[in-house]
Amino acid sequence: MHPSFLKDQLQTLVKIISDIVRAKDFETGTRTQASEIVLNLTDDMPAMMRKVSEMKSEFFPAIVQLVTECEMDNELWAQTIEDE
C-alpha cells in the first residue's frame, strides 16, 4: 500500500529479485511472482524505480532470459503435431 518505505533498499531488492528470476532452480511460477514485485513497485513509484541502476543492468536481462526460455526439449518438440 505504501511502497515508499522501501526506497532505501530498492537497489538491494531489485538485485535479489533479479537473482531469483535468473535462477532456473526455482519453479516458473516463483520466478514470475518475484518479477511481479518489481513490476508493481514500478507502477506505484516510477520516479524512484527509474533511479535504480540495477533495473537496466540486472532486472531487464533477467526478464528477457525468463521470457525467452523454452520449456520443451527439441526431441519432444519434433514429435508434436501442430494444428493447421
Q: Can you give a write-up of this model?
A:
The chain is mainly α. The chain has one domain. Helices cover 67% and strands 0% of the residues. The protein is built from five helices and no strands. It is elongated, with a radius of gyration of 16 Å. It starts with 9 loop residues before the first helix and ends in a 5-residue tail after the last helix.
Work out the radius of gyration.
16 Å
Q: What gross morphology would you assign?
A: elongated
Unreliable residue runs: none
Termini gap: 47 Å
Overall tally of structural domains: 1
Summarize this structure briefly.
This protein is mostly helical.
Question: What keywords describe this structure?
Answer:
elongated, 0% strand, 67% helix, mainly alpha, single chain, 5 helices, 84 residues
List the helices and strands and how they pair.
Layout (H helix, E strand, L loop, with lengths): L9 H13 L5 H17 L1 H5 L3 H15 L5 H6 L5
